[in-house]
Amino acid sequence: MNFKNFREYLAWLYYQYLLITGIYVLEPWEKSIFNSILFSVIAMVIYTSYVFVPIHVRLALEFFSGIFSSQPESTMALMN
Amino acid sequence: MTTQKNGPGTGVASRQHRQESFEQAPMYVAVMTYLGFGIVTLFGYFRDFLRAVGIEKCHLAQEREEQKDFVPLYQDFENFYTRNLYMRVRDNWNRPVCSLPGPVFDLMERVSDDYNWTFRLTGKTIHNAINMGSYNYLGFAENNTDFLKTVADKLCQYGVGVCSTRQEIGNLGIHEELEQLVASFLRVESSMIFGMGFATNSMNIPALVGKGCLILSDEVNHTSLILGARLSGATIRVFKHNNMHSLEKMLSEAVCSGQPRTHRPWKKILIMVEGIYSMEGSVVRLPEIIALKKKYKAYLYLDEAHSIGAVGQTGRGVTELFNVNPADVDVMMGTFTKSFGAAGGYIAGKKELVDYLRSHSHSAVYASAMSPPVTEQIIRAMKCIMGNNGSTEGIRRIRQLAENTRYFRARLKEMGFIIYGNDDSPVVPILLYMPGKVVAFAREMLERKIGVVVVGFPATPISEARARFCLSAAHTRAMLNQVLHHLNEVGDGLCLKFSRLKYSSCPDLHEETDSELGS
């Protein structure tokens, strides 16, 4: 398939999305409802991941590094 | 009764008709199909809620306010699928056709202003759309006045209506002539014709079997066979489609244990199969079924609605395709709607069977006899196929259909579509799977002036929606090439090429096309 420009390619991708999700058969106002719900869910996922994922990753790394680095000290304490 | 000599091509035929493929689509396709159905179902619930609350006007039949306290007449959930999915997309079915259903036809254009609840005709006609949906296998749906001369003569002689049943005073000489012709065509002793193909099955099976008999019917049998089986009152057991192990297990279990509670032996065991299954495009495994039937002493009912005239070297159906003695099949049934361009059905077999049916079948006793011009159309079509007067028109059509079938199927596999069925069958189902793509496919093909039939949920399993192409001897190579070209474009545009098998095309296929292009 030859696409004359990028807009045509985007339009074809939108068409595929309509066909795969089955939205193609619905009326225009139903399409808008579904698109807005999906868009808001995706926006919330992106926002949450932007705000929380770095903090969670940092905490997880600290937790695991804490286990591995504090191990020799605790065995020494027990032997005492 | 003459036995059939082995024709020259039997070795090739038996090798070819073992290739049936039912390729499974990749997993993501099944997931997306269910996702599509799930989302549309959710919206269906939402719209039903709006209708119940009163925000939206309901276009369907509803009870009046005063009747709401009584027993409900319209069960809401039963029509859920019809109301919420079929109604949205029903512009792809029941399209009005305004010419004869030949290889090209005319459609009336219709639009809808309220999302397919009502339609209006714009007055314009879509001319010369290529017809890939009619069961016009040998191209006998034609209006050439030379060919139809005898039909017009009989119309002038007998009129159109018979105004009686066969048993009373509607048995015309032309009916007897057709019955003898059908019997000699199929190489059996005797045959009987009926005015309607569906009624041939549904009204004659109750005459053959009754309570205390067992019917073993294939999974995907046609509704007429199922209806006839249910009307008869016999016990029905279903075996897996074309699966001989399943059938043999059921046969041996039936013979050993007998009827369910009393363990008396079954009065009759009838195996019901079709020659070509119209939704799958597969061909029955006749030699194996006949071997099983002889071993377990069962009877065989073969419904050749789609295969008579369309397969076999001289068009005599699956018995000729597999080189089987027609006397081995106990009841041969077929219809004249598909390959002969008329209407009606027949049942053929031994003389005792047909004589019994003449007096005991509901269709024979109560239904109106076949109309004379229709009878004459069948007679002229059958004589053409049999090659009377030394004309080769019939053989030419059969060969053209076989060639069209081979070419079309090979090209489709090359392009990468998933196709079901046997390589010899002129019914070609292309799997589309997703509900949105099914609808988009039908609409896109109509825009390119090709009429196709798409089939969805109640007629097929829910995840296997398909488009069904019926090839015809009247399609020229140029028409098929045009259809294939558009199929290629639509297949790319809608991403329908799911096949993962590598297909190596035969070299002679392309030589033929090249020589045509060069000439």
TrEMBL record, chain A:
Cellular localisation: Endoplasmic reticulum membrane
Transmembrane segments: 9-26, 32-53
Keywords, comma-separated and alphabetical: Endoplasmic reticulum, Lipid metabolism, Membrane, Sphingolipid metabolism, Transmembrane, Transmembrane helix
InterPro entries for the chain: Ser_palmitoyltrfase_ssu-like
GO terms (BP aspect): ceramide biosynthetic process; endoplasmic reticulum organization
Membrane topology: Multi-pass membrane protein
Main location (coarse class): endoplasmic reticulum
Keyword 4Fe-4S: no
Pathway: Sphingolipid metabolism; Lipid metabolism; sphingolipid metabolism
Any Gene Ontology CC annotation: endoplasmic reticulum membrane
UniProt GO molecular function: serine C-palmitoyltransferase activity
Stated family: Belongs to the SPTSS family. SPTSSB subfamily.
Function comment: Component of the serine palmitoyltransferase multisubunit enzyme (SPT) that catalyzes the initial and rate-limiting step in sphingolipid biosynthesis by condensing L-serine and activated acyl-CoA (most commonly palmitoyl-CoA) to form long-chain bases. The SPT complex is composed of SPTLC1, SPTLC2 or SPTLC3 and SPTSSA or SPTSSB. Within this complex, the heterodimer consisting of SPTLC1 and SPTLC2/SPTLC3 forms the catalytic core. Within the SPT complex, SPTSSB stimulates the catalytic activity and plays a role in substrate specificity.
Subunit structure and binding partners: Component of the serine palmitoyltransferase (SPT) complex, which is composed of SPTLC1, SPTLC2 or SPTLC3 and SPTSSA or SPTSSB. The heterodimer consisting of SPTLC1 and SPTLC2/SPTLC3 forms the catalytic core of the enzyme, while SPTSSA or SPTSSB subunits determine substrate specificity. SPT also interacts with ORMDL proteins, especially ORMDL3, which negatively regulate SPT activity in the presence of ceramides.
Name of the molecule in the record: Serine palmitoyltransferase small subunit B
Species annotation: Cottoperca gobio
Organism phylogeny: Eukaryota, Metazoa, Chordata, Craniata, Vertebrata
TrEMBL record, chain B:
The organism of origin for this protein: Cottoperca gobio
Enzyme class (EC, first level): transferase
Gene3D superfamilies (alphabetical): Aspartate Aminotransferase, domain 1 (3.90.1150.10), Type I PLP-dependent aspartate aminotransferase-like (Major domain) (3.40.640.10)
Protein name: serine C-palmitoyltransferase
Gene expressing this chain: sptlc3
GO cellular component: endoplasmic reticulum membrane; serine palmitoyltransferase complex
E.C. numbers: 2.3.1.50
GO biological-process terms attached to the record: ceramide biosynthetic process; sphingosine biosynthetic process
Membrane topology: Single-pass membrane protein
Upper lineage: Eukaryota, Metazoa, Chordata, Craniata, Vertebrata
GO terms for MF: pyridoxal phosphate binding; serine C-palmitoyltransferase activity
Co-factor(s): pyridoxal 5'-phosphate
PANTHER family, per database record: CLASS II AMINOTRANSFERASE/8-AMINO-7-OXONONANOATE SYNTHASE, SERINE PALMITOYLTRANSFERASE 3
Annotated keywords: Acyltransferase, Endoplasmic reticulum, Lipid metabolism, Membrane, Pyridoxal phosphate, Sphingolipid metabolism, Transferase, Transmembrane, Transmembrane helix
InterPro entries found in the cross-reference section: Aminotrans_II_pyridoxalP_BS, Aminotransferase_I/II_large, AON_synthase_class-II, PyrdxlP-dep_Trfase, PyrdxlP-dep_Trfase_major, PyrdxlP-dep_Trfase_small
Keyword Plastid tagged: no
